[in-house]
């Protein structure tokens, strides 16, 4: 049986990169998926791809900083699928269902390594780890698991823009113990693990999926 049969998943940042890969993988594993991002055209393309592969998905376009988007996501899940997954509006639904898995995307930057020029990014992402731990402790007795993934370098449009040149990519790859960066699908598989019952005793974790960049010194 697929790992997410009879589950409903809300995936933000789904127009590209890790979010897009996760949405496609979740749908392939049986979940009904509500996808969100700012770019409507890309979301509609994704929904079409999932449908052609035999899955089910619905899009809500908007900015995750806008509370109205989270209301839309939850209402869409309830109206069209009846269900679950970012904290203020989604946890009450999980409480009604007596369980669920909430997964944040953090990063190794600001957790196991410091880098110049990214102080705001590092601080916000490190804050997600604290939020993960607090929510896991608060809602664990109610059957809700809360975890964060900490990806290493991943071949996404944002990473490509930051790296810029072949030389830059080679440098970033060399930072990792595996001497390469990930493809989004590799990170998505780790998200799938945390979303599925395979991780039923895993909560409050900051799970490194970083190709060894945190421990590499060569």
Would you mind describing this structure in some detail?
With 218 residues, this protein is α/β, with parallel strands linked by helices. The strands form 2 sheets. The chain has a 3-stranded parallel β-sheet with strand order 1-2-3, with helices on both faces. It has a 3-stranded parallel β-sheet with strand order 4-5-6, sandwiched between helices. Helix 1 links the parallel strand 1 and strand 2. Helix 1 crosses helix 8.
Q: Tell me, what is the CATH class of the largest domain?
A: Alpha Beta
Oligomer designation: single chain
Query: Could you tell me the number of beta strands?
Result: 6
Secondary-structure arrangement, i.e. CATH architecture of the largest domain:
3-Layer(aba) Sandwich
Counted by DSSP, the helix tally is: 8
Question: Which word captures the global form?
Answer: globular
What is the H/E string?
A: EHEHEHHEHEHHHE
Mean pLDDT: 87
Secondary-structure map:
Blueprint: E1 8-12, H1 17-28, E2 32-37, H2 40-52, E3 56-61, H3 67-81, H4 87-97, E4 100-105, H5 119-139, E5 144-151, H6 157-163, H7 166-175, H8 184-195, E6 206-209
Parallel strand pairs: 1-2, 2-3, 4-5, 5-6
Short characterization:
This protein is 46% helix and 16% strand. By secondary structure, it is of the alpha/beta class.
Task: From the structure above, extract its key features.
218 residues, alpha/beta, Rossmann fold, three-stranded parallel beta sheet, 8 helices, globular
